[in-house]
Amino acid sequence: xxxxxxxxxxxxxxxxxxxxxxxxxxxxxxxxxxxxxxxxxxxxxxxxxxxxxxxxxxxxxxxxxxxxxxxxxxxxxxxxxxxxxxxxxxxxxxxxxxxxxxxxxxxxxxxxxxxxxxxxxxxxxxxxxxxxxxxxxxxxxxxxxxxxxxxxxxxxxxxxxxxxxxxxxxxxxxxxxxxxxxxxxxxxxxxxxxxxxxxxxxxxxxxxxxxxxxxxxxxxxxxxxxxxxxxxxxxxxx
Length: 238
Description:
Blueprint: E1 2-6, H1 11-22, E2 27-32, H2 36-48, E3 52-57, H3 63-71, E4 77-80, H4 95-116, E5 124-131, H5 142-161, E6 166-173, H6 187-194, H7 205-215, E7 227-230
Parallel strand pairs: 1-2, 1-4, 2-3, 4-5, 5-6, 6-7
């Protein structure tokens, strides 16, 4: 199996990459923006799990990175996990913040699909990582939430256009304690609320990785254009 995970050096992306390596993927490529130390550390873990590793450094939407993705050859799995965004109330944002957030979180998936899908074999999967902010209103999350809503819409369109050979789905994660939360002024409150779900604990990166692995497995052959929510039941409450 040939796998590529954007944002694969830390947090949820790292857990996804390691899950595929431990499940027997022969080759795992991880994309990352600039943290070479984290990428190299994850590469060591992936190799220890038996996978050959390729590191793809840079902005996931750049022409150079997309050329490197195409050069990876036929991918069995493409996971768009990389995400960024400006954490501010709506009226404190600027147009450049909108462009940056939308391009990284939503448009990048389309660019990656253009680069990778034509080579992907029958039975391959594309999975995008979304969040509850695509459907629920969260503090300071206007731009990121809107970009995730666009991401989920794109998943549905790609699921139809790339069928029947390539499956396209998304995983929407609840609150996960990763370094990304450091950018939120209400981090502690988010963690408290996130852990107050019916399951009684926070969602872990490994929980998300398990959902991704399922969507890429033969058992999910008839799951298409779906957003699989992994939040411990948080979003089913009124």
